[in-house]
């Protein structure tokens, strides 16, 4: 799983390791993963310096010194590893981005997971997404307004990237739990007090997960002791059958409009209902 905290962890690690570094080569073992031509790679990638690394919702963007962008997406099971020719992942590697002796490995990448784009093309792809969940301009009022036209369950609206970006299945469940809101509550019936709890929960849950290196399954480099530490701190996600840390009831896996959702049936009773 790669949601906002996992990608924010990668963003920070990539920036620390590669901001200011020159790309000295790129090897792609599956051409579908990165469909740039040899000519484009020679002209726009090799020899270029990574100015900085940005996270946009669920994507990572490497800004190159020629104004071009490398847009990276990590699907289910994919991960990044910073090593060298001798220190490498044992699994099937699709991408090797060389920075002198350092190598950034991409494992489990699929078609078009790496793209060479102009600034305008990045906007074309990501510009229609909702604002980032941790964007400081998203105040509680703007947060509520983002959901104005939604009629679905709050859990599913939270993980809709066109409403707000960065939250997927795991953290949507965790946010509903932290706010003590029933995940299947329909958006239109939530009252202001419930929205305020959701807004605070979103910040607390995501920031705590970031501080614990997210929940990724693979270390970013040999000896990396931070990445993935949050995995043991989920309160409800993938914890069905285990006791709730807040009330002791058994966590359930339920179906909310076709999505698997984890929740506590006892302490997530609040439907945040407006008096009808
Ligand atoms: Zn509970």
Shape: globular
Extended strand count: 10
- State the major sheet: 4 strands, antiparallel
Number of domains: 2
CATH first level of the largest domain: which class? Mainly Alpha
- Which structural class best describes the helix and strand composition? alpha+beta
Work out the strand percent.
15-25%
What is the name of the CATH topology of the largest domain? Answer: Helicase, Ruva Protein, domain 3
Distance N to C terminus: 39 Å
**Helix content class:** 25-40%
CATH architecture assignment name of the largest domain: Orthogonal Bundle
Strand order in the sheet with the most strands: 1-6-7-5
What is the string of SSEs from the N terminus onward?
Answer: HEHEEEEEEEHHHHHEE
Bound molecules: zinc ion
Count the helices. How many? 7
Could you list the spans in which at least 5 consecutive residues all have pLDDT below 50? none
Rounded Rg: 20 Å
Mean pLDDT over the full residue set: 95
Short description:
This protein has 276 residues and is an alpha+beta fold. It contains 7 helices and 10 strands.
What does this 3D model show about the protein?
With 276 residues, this protein is α+β, with helices and mostly antiparallel strands. It has two domains: 4-126, N-terminal domain of MutM-like DNA repair proteins, CATH 3.20.190; 140-263, Orthogonal Bundle (Helicase, Ruva Protein, domain 3), CATH 1.10.8.50. It contains seven helices and ten strands. It has helices spanning 4-18, 38-44, 119-126, 140-146, 154-158, 169-178, 192-211; strands at 25-28, 50-56, 59-64, 69-72, 79-83, 93-99, 102-107, 114-117, 252-256, 259-263. The strands form three sheets. A four-stranded antiparallel beta sheet has the order 1-6-7-5, with no helix packed on it. Strands 2-3-4-8 form a four-stranded antiparallel beta sheet, sandwiched between helices. A two-stranded antiparallel ribbon has the order 9-10. β6 (93-99) and β7 form a beta hairpin. α1 (4-18) runs parallel beside α7 and α6 packs across α7 (192-211). The longest helix is centred in the C-terminal third of the chain and has 20 residues, at 192-211. The two termini are 39 Å apart. The model has no long low-confidence stretch (mean pLDDT 95). The structure holds zinc ion. Zinc ion binds at residues 244, 246-247, 249, 264, 266-267.
